[in-house]
Structures are given as C-alpha cells and as structure tokens.
Write a structure and sequence with these properties.
single chain, 179 residues, alpha+beta, globular
Length: 179
C-alpha cells in the first residue's frame, strides 16, 4: 500500500476505533486549541504568565493553523496539539523545524497522545523537507524530557538558570535530532 494510502487507512481505522489520530489544524480549531492551551498551562512547561481575559487569539501572525498538528479522538474531541515551525526566517536554517509547543489534555495523559504528536511532528517535518528537528524543554520537566529522549532527541545544550519560575531557577534544555 502506498504511504499516503496507508496513512489514510490507519487514520480511518483509528477514527473508527475511537483511538486518537493526528491531523493538520484548521482555522476552526482556534477556540478549542486556545481553551486546551489555557487548561494545560503550568510552570512545569510554560515560562509565560497564565493567560487572563481577554485572551489573545491562539493563531497569530507568526503562528497559523498550518504550523499545528492536532490530536483528535474518534468521537471528535481535541486532546492535544503540537506546534511545528521554522526556528528563524533565515534561509541558512530552512532545513530545521522546531517543536514550539505541545499540549495534551489532562484526561488524555498517559494514553500515548504526546508520543503520537511527536511522531507526527517528525513525519511532518520530514515531509516539509527538514533534516533536523529541535526543541526547548524546561530542565525540571522530567516526563517531557524522558519522552523526547525515547523518541530520539538528545540534549544539545543547557542554559543554566535561564528562567525564574515559582521562585526557583530553571534550566532551559535544548534538544534535537536528525531526521
């Protein structure tokens, strides 16, 4: 079976079984992704303050639906997303994509949704011609670091005490992998 047909077939099987599958985000996902982002906010993975009303749009000038992959269950619930973007607009690193956000709904944690999103981001980055995929993760976010490492990411650098969160200094860990 050709890869695209196989991917479509797997997605249909997942949809029918109720298992989460990943698709590209659509403009109509704006509200649900904004709510998911706010619901999953934590200093375990976020360096920005908790959002307060009025909320800024989820999709903005430098982040539109084409930059996001969404995990959806067979019954249509959005349970996660990953943002995949170019780290800079420079032609000299156009071969790199970067994970610039990943969220999984509390009710979907421990069900493999994060891993599903990472694998989809790897596949999407490859399909967009990327040769490398990078990310940044907070040093104290051990579950995320373990997940990334299990998917082939390695620590490429550490910026010690880069952030002050909840009165504690936290390292910024740079990770990457070849595609």
């Amino acid at each position: 079976m050709p890869p695209d047909s196989q991917r479509s077939h797997q997605r249909n099987d997942a949809y029918e079984s109720g298992e989460p599958f990943v698709r590209l985000a659509l403009p109509d996902d704006e509200d649900v992704l904004g709510r998911l982002d706010r619901a999953t906010w934590s200093t375990l993975h976020s360096v920005t303050p908790r959002a307060r009303p009025p909320y800024t749009p989820f999709f903005q000038e430098n982040s539109d639906p084409r930059d996001h992959l969404v995990a959806v269950t067979g019954d249509g619930r959005t349970v996660g997303y990953v943002r995949l973007a170019r780290p800079t607009p420079l032609a000299s690193n156009a071969h790199v994509r970067q994970i610039q956000g990943l969220a999984v709904a509390d009710e979907a944690r421990g069900m493999g949704v994060g891993r599903l999103l990472i694998r989809a981001a790897v596949a999407e980055a490859r399909s967009r011609g990327a040769l490398r995929l990078s990310l940044r993760v907070l040093g104290h976010n051990t579950p995320a670091r373990r997940l990334y490492e299990s998917e082939g990411f390695v620590v490429e650098g550490i910026q010690p005490r880069e952030f002050l969160l909840d009165g504690e200094f936290v390292d910024d860990v740079l990770m990457g992998r070849e595609l």
